[in-house]
Structures are given as structure tokens and as C-alpha cells.
Amino acid sequence: KKPVEYYTFINDVAKRIKEIDPTRPVAICNGDIIQMDYVAKYAPLIDIYGANIYRGDYGFGAFWDDVRRVLDRPAFITEYGAPAFAKGFDLMEAEEAQGRYHRGNWLDIEYNSAGHDDGAGNSVGGVVFEWLDEWWKNYEPTLHDKKADVIGPFAGGYYFEEWFGIVGQGNGRNSPFMRQLRKAYFVYEELWNRRKR
To answer: What is the pTM of this model?
Structure first.
């Protein structure tokens, strides 16, 4: 509600971090491009613009160009992903859709990194949300809830907070110790191995 005060405070924190250790870059985690113009104006000591972004399986759209145009700084996706559950899809179809979402997002991160002539050249990576499903987050802590939180750009059109893991916990009988690798996990394995060749 008070962006000038907030981003001025963020800049003060960045200044203090740089006083303690001037060799480390300082990043911010924002929600998409919301208030990015305030970051530009009131937080000039931020070195890297990070954002939690959920735009769809095609990637992040104009995000990279927006950051370059408004801030001219490196950009980092601090959170991205998709649920492995979707209304109207069986679990295998929903996992396939989750895998496509992750593939499209990661390829967009790669495409816009330095060294790709056609991309924005300012991408410095991203963090998958999330590694393991979180059953405790929403309505009933002992169940893997299938109630939609909000509308989102995912298969089925809704955001299922407890199903974002690229690793699942099975049906819960062996949780929290069971780990089931989902198709999205293998997407990253394939992409990682492709880069190593």
C-alpha cells in the first residue's frame, strides 16, 4: 500500500548488504512486474530483479524485455511451476500438462539468457516451485486437497496449491517419506543431460 516507503526500505537494506559484503549481488523477489517502476526509481541498489511468475506453459512473455526496458538489470524467476492435478484431467494427463508447463518455462529462461542472439539476454535462471507437494497448505492437513485456490494459467484453469511438486508423496499412506518422481522431474533430467552433451 506504500510502495515508495517499501522500495526505499528495500534500497536501504541493499545498501547495508553491500556495506557488509560488496562482492555479492543483491536481488529482490517481486510478484511478476508489479511495481517494477518503483524498484527502478526507489531501489537503484538492487542488482537483480527476481519475480514469482505464473503466465502459462509458453514461458514468461514480455517479462524479460520489460525488465530490460524499465530496469536494465539481470532478471531471475524466483518461483514458477504448475500443479500436477487438474479438474477434467486424469492424473497422468495432468502430469503431462505439468511437464509441458515446466519445459516451456525452462526453455524460455534459457532462450533469454546471455548468449542467445534472439532473446533478451538478461535471464540468469529460475527456481522451480516446487520440489515436493505440500499437503498441509490448504484446507485439510491430512488430505491431498483437490479444492481449487484461484483461477490460473494451468491445465483445467485452476491453481491447486498442494499439487505443485515435481515430486509427489503417493497416496499419503507412506507420507511424508515416499517420493514419486513426476513427468516434470524427467523433463528437467532430459534438459540437464542435453546441456551436458
So the answer is: 0.93
Angle of helix 91-111 relative to helix 183-196, nearest 10 degrees?
30
Q: Please check whether residue 74 is in contact with residue 48, taking contact to mean a CB–CB distance below 8 angstroms.
A: yes
The string of DSSP codes covering 114-141 is TT-TTS-S-EEEEEES-SB--TTSSS-T
Label residue 84 exposed, middle or buried (CB < 10 Å: 0-12, 13-18, 19+).
buried
Do the beta carbons of residue 24 and residue 17 sit within 8 Å? yes
Q: How far apart are CA 98 and CA 80, in angstroms?
A: 11
CA distances, 120 to each of 25, 142, 155 (Å) = 20, 44, 28
Percentages helix, strand, coil for the chain, rounded to the nearest 5?
40, 15, 45
Collapsing DSSP states into helix, strand and coil, what is residue 15?
Answer: helix
Among 41, 120, 42, residue whose Cα is nearest residue 77: 120
Listed residue (43, 100, 36, 83) closest to 64, CA to CA: 36
**pLDDT value for 102:** 98
pLDDT per residue as tens digits for the range 143-177: 888 988 799 999 999 999 999 999 998 877 777 78
Grid cell digits, residue 49: 530483479
Upper half-sphere CA count for residue 176 (Cβ side, 13 Å): 7
